[in-house]
Amino acid sequence: MRSPEISKRVLDAKLEACRFAFLKLNAVKTTKMKSYKQLRTLLMLKEISRRGADRDFLKDQENSVTRILCSVLKQVVSNADRSLKSLRGFHYETLDEQEKQHVNRMISSVQGMCSRKYESETIDHHLDDMTEPMEMEIYLGNGDDSFSDIVLEPISWPLESQLTPEWVESLTGLLNQFTWKNSVPSEFPSTLPFSVAASLVDCAAQILDKEANCVRISCCGESSRVVVVGDLHGQFHDLLKIFDQSGRPSESQWFVFNGNYIGRGGSWSLELFLVLLAWKILMPERVCLLRGSSETRVSAEELGFLKETCDRYGEHGPVLYTKCIDCFRTLPLASVVADSVYTTHGGLFQSSSEVDEDSASLLLGSLEELEKVERREVGENVTLDHVLWSCPWMADGLSESNYKGLLWGADCTESFLKQSNLKVIIRSHEGPDARSDREDMGNMLCGYSVDHEVESGKLYTIFSASNLSQGSRSYENEGSYAVLEPPSFTEPKFVSYTVENVPRSLHQNIGVGSSAQQEIMWENRTCHGFASVGISNPPSWTVSLPSEPSQILQLQEPPQVFEGLPLPDTIEEPHKSNYDYLFRLISALKQEVQIRDTREKELMDHLTKTKATLEVISQMSSSL
Question: Would you place residue 554 in the very low, low, confident or very high pLDDT band (cuts 50, 70, 90)?
């Protein structure tokens, strides 16, 4: 019989092997796996090695999960052949020789879990041999629900708020795994506690608040490069795709995000925003987060961000939502890369200088004026609206649009580049949905477009949310990001991509049974109207459009406009949300019609008074 001392020494060595294996497996960017089983094996191997390296957890024999993991750990320690076969089954065609060596070292470290010769004193030596994570692309299988049985342990806030790359990667991995678990929103705090989410927002807001309106990014060195990302609209897995393809922020790689992190309800907006805030805290000088048109209280509420936050955190949801809104106000408005490239969300803006009232033309604003904008103030802010909402067009000049922003032509692009001594403008704000009705501009289906080419440089629009879905319409578009490299940084290389396979959103997981039931729900939603969801007499009204310009638009309501409410108890999502949204839409339409009615009446009264005055003047002049 083996002596207890020897058994303890062997156990210690194997626990150290587990710890080492977990560190190395956790550093792998699980990226270029060609089958779901390989990814699944790696995830389980990481979980097993992490639990195996945790002595305190192993002591608690009352925990059934512990007993199961201990049993599996013994199997892995005795025979890791299947795990090694999966790891060796990766496709390495795109890796160079150095990366292949890293993978081989990682496999060797896993072999230590089942090798008696693997002693703890060899750990430090192997740790020094593998310091860089491998580059491999994740392929997340066929979208089945096999992730639902993975147990995710909640992440805790690091001591003294000192984030590490490992912590940020762990956060990203946990949130990614949660999106694939087919969970309901209320389970979210079990993965990311409210206190951790609140701490992320608070710490990031303190950093962002100290930054200038226009962040200057000074790049030097032959290996330096800057990645510019456009609208993501809450598509968390597009962000992961970008990181997997381009790499993470580092000392030699900057990231500039042009805003619109928040997407329409049912997206992963909160996950995306929190991961970006974590990177901002970790590398504040290498990650630049700009404000988009979605990052306002009005837009965020319209897009369902308040509901998304409350669905995840319940009674704590409004608190976190308010923190996020306050954080939005601290986001800078623009960046200048290498004194040559200007990036922003919307575009150019009107000068705040006094304008001659007799002149009909608008004056173009400057970078100096942008620095003076009070971006944190609540209320009307014309320059801020222009920066977030303006769009280019093909006509010359600077004109007011039909919303909050401006429309500017190629002559304004030339003037701005010349007066600012810049070469390139990279803006976002418009995707294939916005460009579908603008035949004079690029359709954005490849993720970017060249909008203006002038003597001083170029204007680009970039959009990073692939396969955008807006309402009932889906766009088979690519997302894109721009890479700026030395020596001049003025010739962006655009990388287009698509993320074909993404998990169902949390809202799709509520009240959804089998796939057959889900198909029935969507069939009812799209084909059979209100009757299919238990509403026999939906509210309605008619609006009679006037045949003559002088007539007043009248609103005719039936006596029982709200007949059919309250909604039946059996109504399920997404019908309930859609029905509630319909009433909000009806209310807004009613208000708009009433406002128009009032304006028409005021105009008619004014015209009547003017006509009477002219008649009096005419009578007086004829009597002279």
Answer: very low
The residue-averaged pLDDT of 583-592 equals: 65
> Closest by alpha carbon to 17, among 89, 103, 123, 97?
123
Q: Are 472 and 438 in contact (CB under 8 A)?
A: no
Of 155, 203, 202, 160, the C-alpha closest to 176 is: 155
* CB-side neighbour CA atoms (13 Å) of 204: 30
Residue 344 β-bridge partners: 334
Residue 405's CB is within 10 A of a number of other CB atoms, namely 22
Q: Specify the pLDDT at position 353.
A: 75
Specify the pTM: 0.62
Minimum mean pLDDT range among 90-99, 363-372, 591-600:
90-99
pLDDT digits (tens, 9 = 90+) for 190-239: 889 999 999 999 999 999 999 999 999 998 778 899 999 999 999 999 99
Strands 253-257 and 225-229: parallel
The DSSP line for 340-390 is TEEEESS---B--S---TT--PPPBP-HHHHHT--TT--S--HHHHHHHH-
469's tokens: 């879905």
Structure tokens at 437: 């009705």
Please choose, from the candidates 456, 489, 506, 418, the residue with its C-alpha nearest in 3D space to the C-alpha of residue 186.
Answer: 506
Considering only CA atoms, which of 429, 393, 403 is closest in space to residue 258?
429
Nearest to 412 by CA among 456, 368, 442: 456
The amino acid at 544: S
* 267-296: pLDDT as tens digits: 899 999 999 999 999 999 999 999 999 999
- Return the DSSP state at 560: T
Between 97-111 and 81-88, two packed helices, what is the crossing angle to 10 degrees? Answer: 170
Joined tokens for residue 102 = 């890293």
Strands 253-257 and 287-289: parallel
Task: Identify residue 238 by its one-letter amino acid code.
Answer: D
Residues 6+ apart with CB under 8 A from 293: 259, 260, 299, 345, 346, 388, 389, 429
114, 79 contact by CB (below 8 A)? yes
Of 346, 362, 366, 435, the closest CA to residue 399 belongs to 362
Rounded to whole angstroms, how far apart are CA atoms 11 and 330?
52
> In the sheet that 448-453 helps form, which strands lie side by side, from edge to edge?
214-217, 334-337, 341-344, 424-427, 458-462, 448-453
Q: Output phi, psi for 504, to 5 deg.
A: -65, 145
> Cα separation of 245 and 251, whole Å?
17
Domain ranges across the chain = 1-94, 169-351+362-498, 522-619
Q: What is the rounded CA–CA span in Å between residue 115 and residue 80? A: 10
CA of residue 242 relative to chain centroid, distance: 12
Write out the H or E segment, with its range, that includes residue 337.
Answer: strand 334-337
Question: Residue 254: enclosing H or E segment and its boundaries?
Answer: strand 253-257
CATH level 3 topology of 169-351+362-498:
Purple Acid Phosphatase; chain A, domain 2 (3.60.21)
CA dihedral 161, 285, 133, 48 (to 10 degrees): 20
